[in-house]
Amino acid sequence: MTATLAGLRIVVSAGPTYEDIDPVRFLGNRSSGRMGFAVAAAAARRGADVVLVAGPVHLETPPGVQRVDVRSAAQMHAAVFAALPADAYIGAAAVADYTPRAVAADKLKKRGDTLVVECVRTADILADLGAHALRPRRLVGFAAETGDLAGYARDKLVRKRVDFIAANRVGQPGSGFESEDNALTVYWPDGECSLGPAAKTLLAGQLLDLVFAN
Ligand code: C5P
Question: How far apart are the CA of 207 and the centre of ligand 1, in A?
Answer without folding.
Answer: 18
